[in-house]
Amino acid sequence: MSRLWDMLNDLKSAKYTWVDLSHPVNKETPHYSGYNTLEMYEVFTHEEHTVCASEYKIVSQYGTHIDPPSHFVENGRTLDQIELKEMVLPLCIVDLSEKTTTDHDYAFTVEDLKNWESQHGELPDGCFVAIRTNWSQRQGEAFFNPDKDGQPHYPGWSIEALKFLCEERSVTAVGHETPDTDPAIANLIVPWAGERYLLEQDKYQIEMLRNLDQLPETGAVISCSFPNVTGAPGYTARCIAIYEN
């Protein structure tokens, strides 16, 4: 038997746990208010055609999704140019859920990352760094958390933390449970400064992850899959993580 088959059988055994990190895709899926909600049309039905087929109208950044460099960078890499080996990575989870429970405008810091390293060792080259905030447990309006004036409030990355990951470490991608890379209030000063910086470094990110609370901070592997759409600036993603019990 193939060694790879043996490895796969082992991964599917009770020794390992598999966790879905993506929101289901439907009309209730969280998404930026400037984007239309998913539309679905039945093209063929079992009753009329003996086969079922549907047509979907969906924005590229809907629910749990990937942002390749081209989302912000003209001539940056598009979805189909993300290399296969970049889609399966060591997963490092930084738990900041306690801080973000009390401070909805919190910006993830370099100190947060260094504190994680003091416990777990230096972030490995080529890893995926995800910030756990438990934000994905919020539903409806609470996900964007607007104040009485309609201004959203949710945490995100500081640009200094992203520079640390890109310039002092060698990560491949980052992810978060929140709607955006930057804290919502940071966009009032310079819109999407952190996201623009990250994508300019030829990295990709996954936004609106979920179930990070079900994973250990180290030792898991993340697999990010999405359609191979030519020239696409993003798409809804199906991400899973696997870890040893």
UniProtKB/TrEMBL annotation:
An individual GO BP term: L-tryptophan catabolic process to kynurenine
Transmembrane regions: none
MF term (GO), any: arylformamidase activity
Keywords: Hydrolase
Matching SUPFAM superfamilies: Putative cyclase (SSF102198)
Pfam families: Cyclase
Record-given protein name: Metal-dependent hydrolase
Species this chain originates from: Enterococcus florum
